[in-house]
Design goal:
The complex is a heterodimer of chains A (115) and B (117). Chain A contains no helices and 11 strands. By secondary structure, chain A is mostly beta strands. Chain A starts with a strand and ends with a strand. Chain B is built from no helices and 11 strands. In chain B, the strands form 2 sheets. In chain B, strands 2, 4, 5, 6, 9, 10 and 11 form a 7-stranded mixed beta sheet that branches. Chain B is globular. The chains are: A mainly beta (115), B mainly beta (117). The interface between A and B is medium-sized, with 27 and 28 residues.
Chain lengths: 115, 117
């Protein structure tokens, strides 16, 4: 089945700096790549997603890039703020074993934005 | 609030007992998913329904686990003869059916945390 690897597992940045989280996937047929933010005691919340027919997508301070050839995608957060501190998960679906919106998640990145 | 609702939020039980969790999805969503999340890990897929039909079950879902969505609205996840290894956060999510353009967004509830003593 699909396997999603995520790095780094922890990331500490100064407020105002940029943060980058990287993921790789194994199923070349996967076509949907969302990113979720999970705050303590809450369920994951979608922050941005990208489909395999585009290479980059931006939403204010957040951007995601996708390299289908290399099978990796990245989350970029610019001008980080303390409220960005959370666990971020990448995910993939739509491949040979990912039909029906079944998402395979990475192991998460604990982002800490320090003042 | 019209988000995904899960109950109970926390459950502590003794090994060997049965537990049941309930999920109420967003009303217009016809797909409903159960995921399990252990500490420091990403959510792992357990099963999903389209309306009342259970379309896929993970190999993670042992015979002690059963999920239902009898009228295509709320769903229950029952764990029989609980084991300490069942301790986890059980997350429910819902979505509209994906289109030819691709998968639809999954909306997660806040989860039901199970502790098996």
């Amino acid at each position: 089945g699909e396997n999603v690897e995520q790095h780094p597992s922890t990331l500490s940045v100064q407020e105002g700096d940029s943060a980058v989280i990287k993921c790789t996937y194994s199923d070349s047929a996967s076509n949907y790549f969302p990113w979720y933010k999970q705050e303590l005691g809450k369920g994951p919340q979608l922050i941005i997603d990208i489909r395999s027919n585009v290479g980059e997508k931006k939403d204010q301070r957040i951007a995601v890039t996708l390299n289908k050839t290399a099978k990796h995608f990245s989350l970029h957060i610019t001008e980080t703020q303390p409220e960005d501190s959370a666990v971020y998960f990448c995910a993939a679906s739509g491949g040979l074993t990912g039909g029906g919106n079944k998402l395979t998640f990475g192991t998460g990145t604990q982002l800490k934005v320090e003042l | 609030d019209t988000g995904v609702s899960q109950n109970p939020r926390h459950k502590i039980t003794k090994r060997g007992q049965n537990v049941t969790f309930r999920c109420d999805p967003i009303s217009e969503h016809n797909r409903l998913y159960w995921y399990r999340q252990t500490l420091g890990q990403g959510p792992e897929f357990l099963t999903y329904f389209q309306n009342e039909a259970q379309l896929e079950k993970s190999r993670l879902l042992s015979d002690r686990f059963s999920a239902e969505r009898p009228k295509g609205s709320f769903s229950t996840l029952e764990i029989q003869r609980t084991e300490q290894g069942d301790s986890a956060m059980y997350l429910c999510a819902s979505s509209v059916r994906g289109t030819a353009a691709g998968t639809g967004e999954l909306f997660f509830g806040e989860g039901s945390r199970l502790t098996v003593l």
